[in-house]
Design a protein that fits this description.
This is Adenosine deaminase. It comes from Photobacterium gaetbulicola Gung47. Its EC number is 3.5.4.4. With 331 residues, the protein is an alpha/beta fold. The protein has a single domain, classed as TIM Barrel (Alpha-Beta Barrel). It has 15 helices and 8 strands. It has an 8-stranded parallel β-sheet, with helices on both faces. Strand 4, helix 8 and strand 5 form a beta-alpha-beta unit.
Length: 331
Amino acid sequence: MNYFDLPKIDLHCHLDGSVRPQTVIDLAKQQNITLPSYDVDEINALMVAPETCPNLPEYLSRFDLPVSVMQTAESLERISFELFEDAAKENVKYLEVRFAPQLHIQNGLTYEQIIASAVKGMKKAEALYDIKGNYILSMVKFLPSDTIPQVIDAGVGLLNQGVVAFDLAGSELDGFSHDYATFAQDAKDKGYRVTIHAGEQGCGQNVYEAISILGAERIGHGVAIKDHEKAYNLVKEEDVALETCPSSNVQTKAIPELAQHPIKAFYKDGVPVTINTDNRTVSNTTMTDEVRKVMEQFELNEEDYYQIYKMSVKHSFASDDVKQALMQFAK
């Protein structure tokens, strides 16, 4: 199977975790930001997490450098464009990128400007390449929650024109859903779809609550349901897709090693699963790599791949027209 040539869909990819190292150097020079080095290999080493991180915070520390240069409209537009360009060049047909506007206000940009800049970069790539995309607005749990309504409101003007969903990201404490129910409801009332990071570092109960309290239609990661029958059953009953990110799950110790990843068991039991990158730079990966790893590790065939591809189309937040076009690539 030629993994590079397969049509691919990535539903879980972070903008700040997928920045080209050379771009960080270029932007730092333009913005007079001092970097620890201007050697691309050394910057790359600072941005890529080790294959086995001791914990999620160590993994998340790799975002500091790219975020430091992502404080202007031009930088956000460029990084967005380059991410969609990189994805298109490995035959990703549809990409949903998530980012946290709250992290990009250090130089005075408004949330509206931040969101519009990212969408503008995506639209430029869509015009040049055979790729479609959307943005998901991630609310970061370690930042003041009173900014969340502002971000939700700022994205409304671009809803279904490049922005589609609400997400919660950041370190995962047990029971976090209770603190965010009103925000998720506000987002839904305004027309956002909902996907929530849960069951990655945290327990399966978090997945159960992300669905039952926050109304999550998809779950970022969700691997912890393997040890939580109630959550597992709810995911199946509600047809909630899991955005699995195999390399990242191993790196952050959500799963000890790839061979123990539950994606095949989930797939064979009818749990909706998708394959995603999470962070192309931080995890030093591509969609081609992720697909290859899963297919080879779990001895899945081309028919299995296209079943997962179709699941990704079905559970994407794309418009019906885009979904129809994406289905043309399925065998």
